[in-house]
User: What shape does this take?
Amino acid sequence: MDKSQEKEEKSQDQQQKSAIDRLNQAAQKARQGKTAIETAKKGAKLAKKASKKLAGRAATALGRQTVATIGAAIVSTAPAWGPPVLFALAIGGLFLVVIIIIIVLFSGATPPPTCKTISADPTTISNNLGANLSVSECSENITYSWALPQIGGVFSASQSASTLYTPPQVNSSQKISIAISICSISAPSNCSQYQTPELTVVAQKLYSCNGYCTIASSCPSSDITGQGTCPTSPSMICCKKDNKKPGPVPSCSEIDQRLRQDYRIRTQSGTPPISYWGPSTAENISCATKQGLWKIFSILTKSWSFENRLLSTSATIQFFYDSSDPTHGYGLTAWAYRMQLHNATYRINNNLSLAGAWITHETGHWLQKRDGSLEARFPDLSRLNRLDSGCYEPGSGSYWLKTYSLRGGNISPIRESMAEAISLYVYNEKYNIINGRLVSIVNFKIKCPNTYKWVRDNIFRGYEYN
Ligand SMILES: [Zn+2]
Assistant: This one.
């Protein structure tokens, strides 16, 4: 230590001492209460500490003299009361902030939410056959967010633990996996990511012919066009006229196979909790019920256009039994390939015509799911209400074909009115009572001619029942 340096340090000590003295004096003079003084003292102490620390740290990198000057500058260049205290408070505040950050970091570090399983069923899909995706056994109080894969598609519910994913039409088969992000509700940035098992999206072949595709035995040889493409499984040919002779009802030993072969439909006892409406249990399906179903579809497929639409996709009808309301038939058809019926065994065996009108309505939803252009082309409901007066009623911001009961909520007035119109087109009448009011339509063809004409031209391509 040379002399000049010693002197320098001495003067620094003196300067610091005098600064603190001044500080204390000023604080006494200020008489601003004990707390203020203590705070000031603490601030000064902190400042002193900080200056020492700074000096210590920088000493290795800088010359000692320079450091001393910096240290001295911190304390002694500050003139009296205000600024030093403020500075000290700032340093104290900084410490506080650091401590708070540490506390937040350590106490807030809750583990990310988790789910034990993620599934996809089935794993081979097309735009006619989606996959049910779900995550289960998850942490509580979380949000779900499914992310569409690059190829696009649609989710039935992108913010739920379970959703139906329907891919777009693809030209060649593709393998994809779908991601879901689950996040804590209380800390939305605290998330985990999961991926479904691999899904194969198969390319869907489109069939077309100048007529309709049907099994060979149901097309008279004079009507075989020999043109266009039809499915090879079941083996079909292109037939040019409406088939108006469905033939005898298949026997019990062949009914399952004929439902599949003639209409690409298979039946299944629904297994709760697959049913979206409850309370319900699986319903056993008798041969008579299946034969009734076959008859209902044999009426619809008298129109080759309708048959083409029906045969474009194979589908399953699931049967449920609702013991709380066993004579009420109600269905859910939110898919292109599945229909869920409640109490259909009772309805079919009790009154085939009424059951037929109901199941035809549900089949109308299949057609909508398979051909998105139908909904877009259906006439404006307020216009139909003007043209076919007496056929529609207002409700939930729109007009509804009045025989339909469940108006409102997220039920679509266009889809329901169209499905109802398809059913009325075939059966021509429906008697219904809603909240004690009679909302029947008798002789649909005469009473609602504009709606009738749209169904004739767009769904049945000219084939008429009435
Ligand atoms: Zn409906």
Q: What stands out?
A: The CA atoms of residues 317 and 434 lie 27 Å apart. Confidence is low (pLDDT under 50) at residues 1-20, 29-37, 46-81. Residues 361, 365, 416, 419 surround zinc ion (CB under 6 Å). The domain at 115-201 is CATH 2.60.40.10 (Immunoglobulin-like).
